[in-house]
Specification:
The complex is a heterodimer of chains A (101) and B (350). With 101 residues, chain A is an all-alpha fold. In chain A, 78% of the residues lie in helices and 0% in strands. The N and C termini of chain A lie far apart (68 Å). In chain B, 6% of the residues lie in helices and 56% in strands. Classes of the chains: A mainly alpha (101), B mainly beta (350).
């Protein structure tokens, strides 16, 4: 009888503990993923800023920024600029990220 | 005149170019990535020029095609289609002439981060105007008087070029270009036999660029041309200072231009912020007659006062007053233009 009670007690404890433990895990996972997301966002914003800087320091020296164009041609625009403006490969990537966030 | 593939004999030159472009585009269409759809860009403009009381009108279309192939190749071309209406000598009516020509039609192979190989019909890399400022949707003023020095008569070459970014850091960037043109007498690709190159050092944090150009004409008469340019565009400021000097076998000269977009007054989209005053001073000196270099036959000074207004939807209106001084007579030059710049995919991408 006692062993049956012990089993029930540990069973209940397990039932309570497991979800609680799991919840703590998922909560910590949620916190980690939101931290990662905000970090990614910061990196993305920084990359955008870098791309804008490269655009202003190179492309805008001769012509104004085109007032919007299809994202389908952003790679072509940047490759054209790489040849014409002598952009480095890194600058090409930065401008591409700026034009095609 | 009928013109059928594959026999090009007897075709109009423009049709031949069109056929080659179409064939190239159809090949490219099969291997296009999402961001790498070929593009059509360019400018559509209407220009008027009144020099010494005589007015000419010029509607111009300047289409540009850029089509990437794979990860390393870009095929690009720019053409000019223009109609010139100029007054007849007796003052009765107007003459008109049509011009259709290529500025360039080239293939670029990006070999590595520092080297791009160019082959075909390309713009001569001398000074800054020819390669950077000549498109009608970019330039605020017409070609400078020294444009003919170093650009080898046609401003384009037929052959090969090596160019790229030799060195790039946060504080400094070095670009270069070296070319050889075999020359061509073909109507579409007119060019001289020549060679030359250009190098420039750019300091991004200062907005300062210093460059030098060299060109050698390799025709029966061989001659050298040298040039230098300084551009200063302070960071976070709409001020632009550009200048260039060129020395040819029989003439030399310089131009210096300053422009300031009033975007710091209520922003670039405000009524005032769309205005851009421009001033250019230029001077040429001749030491021997040479009608082939395109410079004025006598020493000349010129000042240009321009005003550009940037309308929405990529439309710009320009108006310029220039006064040109020389021993053959002083003249007033009035120019007005309206230019629309377009940029869209050549076809719908995936």
């Amino acid at each position: 009888m006692m062993s049956a009670l012990k089993c029930m007690f540990f069973g209940l404890l397990l039932l309570v503990a497991v979800p609680a433990f799991t919840q703590t895990g998922s909560a910590s996972k949620t916190t980690a993923s939101s931290e990662q997301q905000s970090k990614d966002k910061e990196v993305h914003v920084a990359q955008q800023r870098d791309g804008q800087k490269v655009f202003e320091q190179n492309c805008s020296r001769c012509h104004s920024t085109p007032q919007g164009f299809s994202p389908n041609i952003s790679g072509t625009v940047v490759r054209h600029m790489r040849v014409r403006a002598g952009l480095s490969k890194e600058d090409e990537q930065a401008v591409l990220r700026f034009l095609n966030p | 005149m009928m013109c059928l593939f594959p026999d090009f004999k007897g075709c109009l030159p423009s049709r031949r170019i069109g056929a080659v472009l179409l064939l190239g585009l159809s090949c490219i269409a099969t291997s296009v990535m999402a961001q790498d759809t070929p593009l059509l860009s360019g400018g559509l403009g209407f220009f008027t020029n009144t020099t010494g009381g005589s007015t000419t009108y010029q509607p111009i279309l300047t289409p540009l095609l850029a089509a990437p192939i794979g990860q390393h190749i870009l095929v690009e071309s720019r053409a000019n289609v223009l109609e010139t209406l100029s007054p007849e000598g007796n003052g009765q009516g107007y003459n008109h002439s049509t011009f259709l020509g290529l500025s360039y039609l080239q293939g670029d192979f990006i070999a590595n981060p520092h080297v791009t190989l160019v082959g075909g019909y390309f713009l001569i890399p001398f000074g800054t105007y020819n390669e950077r400022l000549s498109p009608i949707w970019i330039s605020n003023l017409d070609a400078p008087l020294i444009f003919g020095i170093g650009t080898m008569v046609n401003a384009s070459g037929t052959g090969g070029m090596v160019r790229g970014n030799a060195f790039s850091r946060e504080n400094v960037s070095v670009s270069y270009a070296a070319y050889f043109s075999a020359g061509s007498t073909s109507k579409e690709f007119q060019s001289q036999r020549s060679s030359g190159g250009q190098t420039s050092v750019y300091f991004p944090k200062k907005g300062l660029e210093i460059g030098a150009s060299y060109g050698r004409l390799l025709e029966q008469k061989q001659s050298n041309a040298v040039g230098a340019h300084v551009w200063w565009e302070p960071i976070n400021s709409p001020l632009r200072l550009r200048s260039e000097y060129a020395h040819g076998p029989h003439s030399q000269g310089y131009w210096a231009e300053v422009d300031y977009r009033l975007s710091q007054i209520h922003g670039g989209e405000s009524v005032i912020g769309r205005l851009e005053p421009i001033f250019r001073l230029q001077q040429t000196f001749r030491n021997a007659p040479d009608p082939s270099d395109g410079l004025p036959p006598v020493n000349t000074q010129r000042v240009d006062f321009g005003l550009a207004y940037h309308l929405p939807h990529e439309v710009r209106i320009n108006t310029t007053y220039a006064r040109q001084f020389s021993s053959t007579g002083n003249v007033n030059i009035w120019e007005t233009s309206v230019v629309y710049r377009f940029l869209f995919p050549a076809w719908r991408g995936k």
